[in-house]
Specification:
With about 375 residues, the protein is an alpha+beta fold. It starts with a helix and ends with a strand. The strands form six sheets. It has an eight-stranded antiparallel beta barrel. It has an eight-stranded antiparallel beta barrel with strand order 21-22-28-26-27-24-23-29. A four-stranded mixed β-sheet has the order 13-20-19-16. Helix content is about 20%, strand content about 40%.
Length: about 375
């Protein structure tokens, strides 16, 4: 009985430890490195992704290519190549329909059924939606065309809200910037030059990016500049308080001590996200002080990635002091994770972070519009 209790205690401890672990953001970065592929089997097209490894990089140089693939075992199609590829074989144990593997160093295999296996393969990638794959391959030999998927041309944002006087840089993805012509439907509300939108007057309009014969539009709403939360609260308090009678100051001997404005203890830095300057209320702690020292030596640029549907995260490029505490974040919170990653939230999450500051003067919707539509670039400077 004592041994059983001891084992249960160990198991409980491991559960707590593992449950509290937050794994790094490698999954997001790895997903970004995957290459989008298109397979055409007969008249049916399938989307697929290739891993980023030596094998796939060597194979992609051959694309586009068409292979006549043979049937084997009622669950796969294969093709022996006339050349060898680098390998990194691992025992797979379980095959899933849509898996694309390399057997040995020269045999490409597409699986169209699930089954267990004891063989080792080098993983190439997988068909993302394999429904209909079995019917497409039919029986016997089949021609399979491998090609890179066409990159979608689109604006980085199709809806944008800016305060009067602020700016944002739009980008037409997957084309050369010099080939894009920018215009705006109502120049009274805003102007645009090389994708940079400058908000001028309250109202709505559309920003237009023309590439070739096609136009891509972004709906723009310009709002009046809002007072900060602190200013609004102070104004409301002053309006509700009765005015106190003024007192005649007492005359005292000696030098008069006038009240000095309180020195700002918080390190003042500026921040831009995708070209939009945001107002940040910084914390007064060692982490922020060290961050300011870094910014004083030159502008800090952080390439950030969306994660979890509630935050943007990016590497700081150096380690700074951390005072992690368990917290539940809110939209606008800026925190330090693991001592070397900056996280800015447009949603909420509960974890142990070091608080750095908070974006002020933006609604939750504006934060989501700024941060929740793709990867962004953050700049911190003095």
């Amino acid at each position: 009985m004592k041994k059983i209790r001891r084992y249960l205690s160990i198991l409980l401890a491991l559960t707590i430890i593992l449950g509290g672990m937050r794994f790094p953001y490698l999954s997001v970065e790895a997903a970004e490195k995957k290459t989008q592929i298109q397979l055409k089997i007969g008249n049916t097209k399938f989307k697929a992704v290739f891993e980023d490894n030596k094998t796939t990089r060597a194979l992609l140089k051959k694309f586009p290519v068409t292979y006549t693939m043979s049937e084997l075992n009622g669950n796969e199609k294969y093709k022996y190549l006339s050349y060898e590829l680098p390998t990194n074989e691992k025992q797979v144990k379980m095959i899933h329909a849509g898996d694309i593997m390399l057997y040995g160093s020269d045999c490409i295999v597409i699986f169209y059924k699930d089954f267990k296996t004891s063989y080792s393969y080098t993983r190439l990638g997988k068909i993302t939606e394999p429904s209909g794959l079995e019917n497409a391959v039919m029986k016997g030999k089949v021609k399979v065309q491998f090609s890179l998927a066409k990159k979608k041309i689109a604006l980085n944002k199709t809806k944008l809200t800016l305060e009067k006087g602020s700016s944002f840089r739009l980008t037409l993805l997957n084309v050369k910037a010099k080939n894009v012509k920018w215009s705006i439907q109502n120049k009274k509300n805003a102007t645009v030059k090389n994708g940079k939108v400058n908000a001028k007057k309250k109202g709505t309009t559309k920003v237009v990016a023309k590439y070739g014969k096609k136009k891509y539009k972004c709906s723009l709403t310009v709002t009046e500049k809002k007072k900060s939360v602190a200013t609004q609260s102070l104004d409301a308090t002053r309006a509700s308080e009765p005015e106190e009678p003024k007192e005649t100051p007492e005359v005292t001997e000696g030098p008069v001590q006038t009240e000095q404005p309180q020195e700002e203890s918080r390190a003042m830095m500026k921040m831009k996200i995708d070209g939009v300057e945001v107002s940040v209320e910084w914390e007064d702690n060692e982490s922020v002080k060290e961050l300011k020292k870094m910014a004083e030596n030159g502008e800090i640029t952080i390439s950030m990635s969306m994660y979890g549907g509630f935050e943007q995260v990016g590497p700081l490029g150096a380690n700074i002091s951390r005072q992690d505490i368990q917290m539940t974040t809110e939209p606008g919170d800026i925190v330090l994770y693991s001592g070397n990653q900056i996280v800015v939230f447009y949603g909420s999450n509960s974890w142990a972070y070091t608080r750095l500051g908070k974006i002020r003067g933006m609604t939750d919707g504006e934060l989501k519009n700024l941060l929740g539509n793709g990867n962004v670039t953050m700049k911190i400077y003095c």
